[in-house]
């Protein structure tokens, strides 16, 4: 989230799309309802009328996977009716930038496309630069190749008629939503978007969010109270686990994983440190070498920086080691050993039957979890013959959250400390203890026996993780993540002794004299103490107005509660919305939130993390185009759509083997299907299915369908039916409900059904199996996130 | 018959008490037996944060001081600025996540081709896992790729997980995996 | 008027079912064995181990389009003059207690000797449920232990949106009337249920009967009879028995 949960109350218009917040983030509705009671309009756009829709002022149905059509139409509406916030657009977005002549768009494809590799040459999309290497700009926004004009041109095709035709949303609903949402382009109004996996789990997932970001930039809704682009993250620490980069392509703090073509630290830093010649651009990532050096020193405190850089594993250039790829390679026998640590991919990953078969190709697997699950017990699952499965499985029982101490980071980036209420039950252990004990044993083996390239193991600063009793120490690790001065360092006349905790990332050094496990968390555990454990609700008058709570826990970066907040004020530092100011310049200093850099008003461009300092309406860094373009999901009900001849995202990630079962536009599977969650369960249900109270409330897999489809299929409410496609089959209880309705799409009737993904064969008996048995292993080209929110099935009576 | 508060309490004390803790045992009689002395009054109070979605609701966890260390109650932290004491169905059930007879309480091992789990000690498990890791790492570690570029990575190991771990755990987990040379490191954020 | 009262603002309820579970959690009530019966409402009904249940009803317009999804967190109304107690007192005055300070109506274990059908029939809201094994009758106890110790009932404490409120009766009635006036703009049919008679006052956004057949004591009867007459009517079999 650019903003945070409490800030929702400051909004004038809340759009919930790609999310079912009332069910999946129920406490968000404390703040949504407060906004509503102050007069905000609540809009829910979803294929299904949910508990969120029940509280909305406007509910508009949409066929799954057609969001870009709807959002493209909104962009067009804002531009056609001149409802954008012009001063903001000119000063804070790249709308005025001139794009080079090679940028073209034709038949649904951007210039630079290579059909053989299915990749774009992004040099076709570059900005035209002046002699200093800065993008040329036209602040009048009239130049035919300025971003603003290109945007207008691109979305000219997104007429209300076409939007209605493809989304299945009634025209009057479309217009009603456009009108209300676009009315927040006024300087003192704000609108916010609450989205979740309903937007990310598509082959156009990133572009869904890009489209909304463009809307928010046009309306001046980023950086302000009650605005922003808010991803509602679904797990208690998925923000933290992302920040610490348990991901193949990034290292903690969103540093890049080194590549084979970067043999030295200097090569690596050069590649990822952007250079901007415009002195007004803060270009914050120019600090990259400080953060990479500090990370390496947190891993290897006593080592030489360059040597330790070599110890980091390198990806081959262009290598994709993402989730779907790992399981595809696992199926082909690449991996011998596998850790499924606090996760249940045999139910949670798209195309679960493929995932389950892949597990059987392993020599061994370590599972760390609280309860038995489909991954741990895959070898005795449906269709498996245990005697033929050689995979050795180690199940390590871990503590539950209330049995351990440490921090978690919520969706609003608040790092919150929690305490152990008791010791773990019986023989369970906190994950941290398991990691430390296991690593100690591995290290011992390498120390005593040697082995392949032992240096990275033997030199790891393991002693920084444990206390004097040699046990996992969350405080020590939190300090390591914050970072220490490793030598006496003098900064701005003040000397920091070696061993002192670094007060903030502005003090990190590129020469190895500081360490910080994650620069974004620098400032979270300082000489002033454990900032994440703070419980003071003290706030200044201005802070209280918008509910910032700066002294409760701690928030990255540098306790800034609302990101991009320099865009909430004009060039003189005056808030656009004086009734709900995020920051303001009082003549000598900023008051309110921690500003995006302390420079005087107008001294630097507002978007400090961007190379040129501007919010990106035009995004030339994305794999699949600088503007979001409409494509159908890879499995879809129609052969043509009205925006171009290009049916699907030409860059979608697909795999070729006999387990993919991709079938589109087929009479055999004519029904659109989506997956989702309910309040009473969580993710694959491992932590909730075993709980009697939650199981009582939602005991079984169900499939929700509209009454017309049910009648056509002869299905009665409450009866057990089959949902199937080429990838598999599920038995589910039919919930026949008017909360779903058929869509009129390109002149034909399209039905949509939905299933929750909380269930699995392990428990409860007759609870149903994983919804992901039906979802395809295809992915977004930017993120490789699978398209589990729109695919095709059939439903029939048993 | 109308009862004053004093008489009411006296009467209600005669009604039998609900189990102070212990999961699913229950007694139908009303809880008024404890009307003047709540079970949570003699409990240790800790603050925590809900383990489900990323709203980050504050919790108060009550743990028995009777030596059992059992959790007897979990509810929303009224001081917490985000949830102000509120919890949804899942959050309100966290007591049952901890005090749950379905939890796996001992390390379990499944041998190749076996139809069953068997209980093993932590030491046995971790020794064997460490040995397995070393075997695969030593066998599949490559210093250079096919182009001759230095890559120093372990090809035969992969990991997924976990957004369910604390920040400190996530950080040391990535550090351990990267020291082993893994690049196939993923978790829930990707799916 | 003295004592405590709940005010349940249904315009704010999202059916997160925090209250349903928090009730089970505080009382350590076991789960029922349920199945999906074509609805998200589960358990299907109140029971001797389910004191609080969120009922869910869909409202469809004449085109078959969904118009509203109504949520009704149901519980004992803790009647100001509880008919269940009046019925019970004829058998055992200590079986059902009426706490003077709070107004809470408490079923004790002595309810197992009461004739269940009479107690159930006495209730205009169809609340009491019986344990088939022990014969004890049970229902919401207002979390009397919490309330007497200055805490909110578990269901109120856990409610995210302000649907569940609890406090001194006059304050709750004031709040209910204030909210009614506010929501009338959005929901012209909004109405408060049985304000004078119960300690659990619902603010309905639609006609109460759309939520549940026992959402309010019968409107028809109420128009015809005074409260006293109504109660006499409800208890007529019992009255006859006594004669």
Give an account of the 3D structure.
The complex is a heterotrimer of chains A (798), B (191) and C (243). Helices cover 24% and strands 15% of the residues of chain A. With 798 residues, chain A is of the alpha/beta class. In chain A, a hairpin with a 2-residue loop joins strand 26 and strand 27 (728-736). The longest helix of chain A is centred in the middle third of the chain and has 19 residues, at 431-449. Chain A is globular, with a radius of gyration of 26 Å. The mean pLDDT of chain A is 98. With 191 residues, chain B is α+β, with helices and mostly antiparallel strands. In chain B, the strands form 4 sheets. Chain B has a 3-stranded antiparallel sheet with strand order 1-2-3. A two-stranded antiparallel sheet of chain B has the order 4-5. A two-stranded antiparallel ribbon of chain B has the order 6-7. The model of chain B is unreliable at 1-36 (pLDDT under 50). With 243 residues, chain C is of the alpha+beta class. Chain C contains 10 helices and 10 strands. Chain C has helices spanning 18-27, 83-89, 116-122, 144-148, 154-158, 169-183, 208-211, 219-224, 227-234, 236-242, and strands at residues 4-9, 53-60, 66-74, 96-98, 105-107, 129-130, 137-138, 164-168, 191-192, 200-204. In chain C, the strands form 4 sheets. A 4-stranded mixed sheet of chain C has the order 8-1-10-9. In chain C, helix 2 (83-89) packs antiparallel against helix 3 (116-122). Chains in contact: A-B, A-C, B-C. At the A-B interface, helix 11, helix 15, strand 12, strand 13 and strand 14 of A face strand 1, strand 2, helix 2, helix 3 and strand 4 of B. Strand 12 (337-341) of chain A pairs parallel with strand 8 of chain B.
């Amino acid at each position: 989230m650019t903003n945070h949960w409490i800030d929702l109350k400051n909004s004038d218009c809340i759009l919930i799309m790609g999310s079912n917040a009332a069910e999946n983030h129920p406490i968000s509705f404390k703040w949504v309802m407060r906004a509503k009671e102050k007069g905000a309009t609540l809009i829910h756009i979803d294929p299904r009328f949910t508990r969120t829709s029940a509280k909305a002022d406007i509910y508009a149905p949409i066929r799954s996977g057609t969001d870009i059509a709807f959002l493209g139409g909104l962009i067009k509406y804002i531009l056609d009716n001149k409802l954008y916030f012009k001063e903001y657009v000119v000063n804070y977005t790249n709308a005025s930038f001139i794009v080079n002549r090679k940028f073209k768009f034709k038949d649904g494809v951007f210039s630079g496309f290579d059909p053989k590799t299915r990749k774009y040459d992004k040099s076709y999309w570059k900005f035209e630069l002046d002699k200093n290497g800065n993008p040329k700009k036209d602040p009048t926004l009239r130049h035919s190749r300025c971003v603003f004009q290109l945007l207008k041109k691109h979305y000219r095709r997104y007429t209300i008629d076409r939007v209605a035709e493809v989304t299945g949303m009634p025209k009057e609903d479309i217009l009603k939503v456009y009108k209300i949402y676009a009315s927040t382009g006024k300087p003192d109004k704000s609108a916010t978007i609450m989205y979740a996996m309903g937007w990310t789990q598509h082959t156009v997932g990133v572009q869904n969010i890009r489209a909304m970001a463009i809307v928010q930039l046009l309306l001046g809704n980023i950086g302000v109270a009650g605005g922003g682009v808010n991803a509602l993250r679904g797990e208690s620490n998925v923000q933290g686990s992302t920040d610490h980069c348990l991901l193949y392509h990034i290292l903690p703090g969103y540093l890049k994983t080194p590549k084979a073509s970067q043999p030295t630290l200097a090569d690596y830093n050069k590649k990822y440190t952007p250079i901007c010649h415009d002195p007004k651009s803060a270009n914050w990532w120019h600090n990259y070498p400080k953060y990479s050096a500090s990370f390496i020193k947190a891993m290897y405190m006593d080592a030489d920086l360059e040597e330790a850089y070599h110890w980091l594993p390198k990806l081959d250039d262009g290598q994709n080691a993402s989730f779907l790829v790992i399981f595809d390679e696992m199926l082909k026998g690449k991996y011998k050993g596998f850790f499924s640590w606090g996760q249940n991919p045999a139910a949670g990953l798209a195309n679960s039957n493929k995932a389950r078969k892949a597990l059987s190709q392993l020599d061994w697997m370590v599972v760390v979890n609280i309860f038995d699950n489909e991954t741990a017990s895959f070898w005795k699952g449906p269709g498996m013959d245990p005697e033929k499965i050689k995979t050795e499985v180690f199940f390590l029982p871990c503590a539950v959250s209330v049995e351990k101490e440490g921090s978690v980071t919520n969706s609003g980036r608040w790092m919150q400390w929690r305490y152990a209420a008791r010791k773990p039950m019986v023989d369970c252990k906190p994950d941290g203890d398991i990691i430390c004990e296991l690593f100690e044993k591995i290290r011992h083996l390498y120390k005593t026996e040697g082995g392949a390239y032992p240096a990275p193991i033997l030199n790891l600063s393991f002693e920084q993780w444990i206390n004097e009793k040699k046990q996992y120490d969350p405080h020590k690790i939190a300090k390591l993540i914050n970072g220490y001065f490793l030598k006496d360092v003098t900064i701005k006349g003040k000397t920091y002794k070696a061993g002192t905790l670094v007060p903030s990332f502005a003090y990190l050094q590129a020469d190895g004299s500081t360490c910080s496990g994650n620069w974004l968390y620098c400032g979270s555990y300082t000489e002033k103490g454990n900032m994440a454990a703070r419980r003071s609700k003290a706030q200044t008058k201005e802070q209280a107005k918008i509910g910032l709570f700066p002294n409760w826990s701690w928030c990255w970066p540098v306790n800034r509660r609302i990101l991009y907040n320099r865009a909430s004020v004009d060039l003189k530092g005056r808030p656009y919305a004086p009734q709900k100011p995020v920051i303001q310049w009082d003549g000598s200093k900023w008051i309110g939130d921690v500003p995006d850099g302390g420079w005087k008003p107008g001294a630097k461009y507002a978007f400090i993390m961007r190379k040129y300092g501007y919010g990106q309406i035009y995004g030339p860094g994305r794999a699949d185009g600088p503007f979001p373009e409409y494509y159908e999901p890879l499995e879809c009900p129609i052969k043509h759509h009205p925006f171009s001849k290009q049916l699907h995202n030409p860059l979608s990630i697909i795999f070729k083997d006999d387990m993919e079962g991709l079938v589109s536009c087929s009479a055999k599977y004519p029904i659109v299907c989506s997956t989702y969650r309910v309040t009473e369960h969580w993710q694959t249900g491992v932590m909730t299915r075993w709980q009697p109270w939650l199981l009582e409330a939602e005991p079984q897999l169900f499939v929700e369908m509209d009454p017309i489809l049910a009648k056509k299929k002869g299905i009665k409410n409450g009866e057990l039916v089959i949902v199937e496609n080429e990838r598999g089959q599920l038995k589910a209880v039919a919930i026949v409900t008017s909360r779903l309705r058929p869509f009129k799409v390109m002149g034909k009737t399209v039905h949509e059904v939905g299933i929750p993904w909380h269930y699995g064969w392990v428990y409860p008996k007759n609870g149903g199996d994983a919804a992901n048995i039906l979802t395809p292993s295809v992915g977004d080209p930017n993120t490789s996130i699978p398209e589990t929110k729109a695919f095709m099935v059939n439903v029939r009576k048993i | 018959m109308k009862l004053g508060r004093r008489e009411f309490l006296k009467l209600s004390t005669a009604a039998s008490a609900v189990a102070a803790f212990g999961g699913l045992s229950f007694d139908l009689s009303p809880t008024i037996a404890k009307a003047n002395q709540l079970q949570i009054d003699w409990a240790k109070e800790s603050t925590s944060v809900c383990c489900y979605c990323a709203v980050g609701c504050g919790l108060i966890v009550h743990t028995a001081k009777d030596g059992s260390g059992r959790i007897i109650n979990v509810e929303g932290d009224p001081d917490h600025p985000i949830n102000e004491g509120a919890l949804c169905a899942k959050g309100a059930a966290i007591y049952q996540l901890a005090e749950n007879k379905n939890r796996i309480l001992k390390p379990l091992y499944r041998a190749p081709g076996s139809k069953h789990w068997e209980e093993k000690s932590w030491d046995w498990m971790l020794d064997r896992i460490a040995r397995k890791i070393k075997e695969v790492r030593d066998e599949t570690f490559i210093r250079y790729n096919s182009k001759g570029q230095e890559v120093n990575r372990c090809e035969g190991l992969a990991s997924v997980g976990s957004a369910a771990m604390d920040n400190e755990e996530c950080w040391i987990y990535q550090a351990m995996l990267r020291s082993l040379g893994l690049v196939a490191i993923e978790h829930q954020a990707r799916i | 008027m003295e004592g405590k009262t709940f005010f349940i603002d249904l315009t704010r309820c999202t059916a997160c079912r925090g209250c349903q579970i928090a009730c089970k959690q505080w009382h350590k009530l076991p789960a029922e064995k349920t199945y999906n019966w074509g609805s998200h409402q589960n358990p299907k009904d109140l029971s001797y181990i389910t004191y609080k249940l969120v009922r869910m009803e869909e409202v469809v317009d004449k085109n078959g389009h969904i118009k509203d999804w109504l949520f009704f967190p149901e519980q004992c109304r803790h009647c100001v003059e509880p008919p269940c107690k009046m019925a019970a007192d004829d058998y055992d005055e200590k079986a059902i207690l009426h706490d003077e300070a709070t107004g809470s109506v408490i079923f004790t274990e002595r309810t197992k000797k009461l004739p269940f059908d009479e107690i159930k029939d006495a209730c205009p809201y169809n609340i009491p449920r019986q344990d088939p094994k022990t014969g004890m009758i049970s229902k919401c106890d207002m979390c009397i232990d919490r309330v007497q110790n200055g805490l909110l009932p578990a269901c109120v404490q856990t409610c995210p949106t302000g649907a569940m409120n609890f406090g001194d009766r006059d304050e709750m009635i004031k709040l209910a009337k204030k909210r009614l006036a506010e929501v009338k703009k959005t929901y012209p049919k909004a109405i408060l249920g049985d304000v004078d008679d119960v300690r659990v006052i619902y603010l309905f956004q639609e006609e109460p009967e759309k939520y549940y057949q026992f959402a309010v004591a019968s409107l028809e009867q109420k128009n015809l009879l005074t409260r006293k007459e109504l109660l006499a009517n409800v208890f007529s079999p019992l009255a006859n028995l006594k004669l």
